[in-house]
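Quick one:
INPUT:
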């Protein structure tokens, strides 16, 4: 039987934040969610999340999962106290108890499995993950004696000699729960932080083992914003390296961010300051950026998107977007179309080879194929209460500065005169024009003031 306890009750004082520490995010996902996702892969029988500080906020952040039980620790008197509360609350303290610090978010399921295997093969009372850090500042130091862990000393309790020890406790433990519960209530808080430390259990249990792994970044703990940013860097580096090995070029890697869910095809060039978020898919041979933000969108092959923002939309193949375009949710831009400078598109569908090249707003619209929308065209979709649709048929030629007052239905091969305000539907092959005729008064003399 495998149970998991995730320690997430602390305030995270060193974050200097009103948000509980475990709800801070790295690459779009909270620290706590990351730890949960890692341990779920082990298929444990039950997961306990120990909450305390702003417990409701923390609990509400986690989507429903039958295996997760929340345990309240109040007050929060230390990591050992958190497990005391758990042991009291849960009647059957049996099998293995994997304890994970909620602020060590990059731990990999593979590493957790290794720990469980070591624990089982040696029938240990406790096994925990350690690593040698060049700069161990802030971590508990692990002291070994003949292959067993003798004790762990927290940074704040270390003397000068102890502080030189580079072997640190990662905050990831596997306990024989039955044996742990026999000693857990005897933990004391006679230390410099006046807290009950979980780390003191290693001296009280007999068979305490260390699984030392290489310091590859996955054990990074987060106590302050410097470590939060370090963690972000570790994740981002690994995501970008994976894409580079799969055929993606980054012109200025450090200035870009890519979500873990994003998929990017081969021979895609990501220019500087480009951010690909959520479940975005970019297909082969695109150039994305510079200065571009794309979230939850699909971009087909051979597209070029520069200096633009795209949300929740579908951009098909061979399309140029930008510079300075804003494509808002639920838009579909069909192949060989062009969305140009200072153009905003929202909840609209553009058929193949249509063009909206300059300074336009196209909202709640359907634009037919081969239609050219002249500079400055606006679909006036809002009557103060409701949004309405604009439909423009294929092969139409919309004059510069046309305003369509929706709801409106414009046929195929329609031409509109520049500067027209179009309020009535137009049939196929018609010219729609609505503007006063120009008068030229010759030899006009200006009034003298
Ligand atoms: C802890 C370890 C340290 C280790 C480091 C690894 C102890 C005493 N020290 O130190 O040896 O090197 O993690 O990152 O365990 N929490 C509760 N209830 C509490 C206090 C804390 O649930 O009463 C939770 C926190 O929300 C956090 C986790 O436990 O997620 C660790 O607490 P933190 O205060 O960050 O411990 P560290 O000082 O990092
Ligand atoms: Mg910590």
């Amino acid at each position: 039987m495998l149970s998991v306890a995730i320690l997430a009750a602390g305030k995270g004082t060193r974050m200097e934040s009103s948000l509980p520490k475990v709800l801070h995010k790295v690459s779009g996902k909270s620290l706590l969610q990351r730890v949960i996702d890692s341990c779920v892969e082990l298929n444990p029988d039950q997961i306990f999340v120990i909450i305390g500080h702003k417990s409701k906020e923390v609990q509400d952040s986690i989507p429903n999962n039958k295996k997760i039980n929340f345990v309240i620790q109040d007050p929060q008197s230390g990591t050992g106290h958190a497990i005391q509360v758990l042991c009291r609350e849960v009647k059957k303290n049996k099998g293995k108890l994997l304890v994970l610090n909620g602020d060590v978010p990059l731990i990999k399921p593979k590493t957790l499995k290794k720990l469980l295997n070591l624990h089982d093969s040696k029938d240990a009372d406790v096994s925990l993950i350690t690593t040698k850090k060049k700069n161990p500042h802030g971590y508990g130091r692990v002291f070994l004696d003949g292959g067993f862990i003798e004790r762990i000393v927290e940074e704040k309790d270390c003397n000068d000699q102890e502080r030189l020890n580079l072997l640190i406790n990662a905050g990831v433990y596997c306990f024989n729960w039955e044996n742990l519960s026999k000693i857990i209530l005897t933990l004391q808080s006679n230390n410099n932080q006046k807290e009950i430390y979980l780390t003191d259990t290693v001296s009280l249990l007999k068979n305490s083992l260390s699984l030392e792994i290489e310091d590859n970044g996955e054990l990074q703990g987060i106590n302050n914003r410097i470590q939060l940013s370090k963690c972000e860097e570790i994740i981002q580096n690994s995501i970008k390296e994976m894409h580079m090995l799969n055929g993606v070029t980054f012109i200025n890697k450090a200035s870009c961010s890519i979500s873990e869910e994003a998929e990017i095809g081969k021979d895609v060039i990501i220019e500087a300051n480009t951010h690909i978020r959520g479940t975005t898919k970019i297909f082969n041979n695109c150039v994305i950026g510079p200065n571009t933000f794309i979230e939850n969108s699909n971009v087909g092959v051979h597209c070029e998107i520069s200096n633009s923002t795209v949300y929740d939309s579908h951009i098909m193949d061979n399309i140029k977007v930008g510079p300075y375009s804003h494509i808002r949710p639920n838009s579909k831009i069909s192949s060989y179309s062009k969305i140009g400078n200072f153009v905003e598109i929202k909840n609209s569908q553009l058929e193949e080879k249509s063009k909206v090249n300059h300074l336009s707003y196209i909202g709640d619209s359907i634009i037919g194929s081969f239609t050219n929308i002249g500079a400055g065209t606006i679909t006036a979709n809002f009557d103060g209460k409701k949004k309405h649709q604009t439909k423009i048929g294929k092969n139409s030629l919309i004059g510069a500065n046309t305003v369509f007052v929706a709801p409106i239905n414009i046929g195929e091969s329609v031409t509109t005169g520049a500067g027209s305000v179009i309020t009535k539907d137009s049939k196929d092959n018609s010219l729609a024009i609505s503007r006063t005729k120009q008068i030229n008064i010759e030899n006009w003399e200006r009034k003298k003031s």
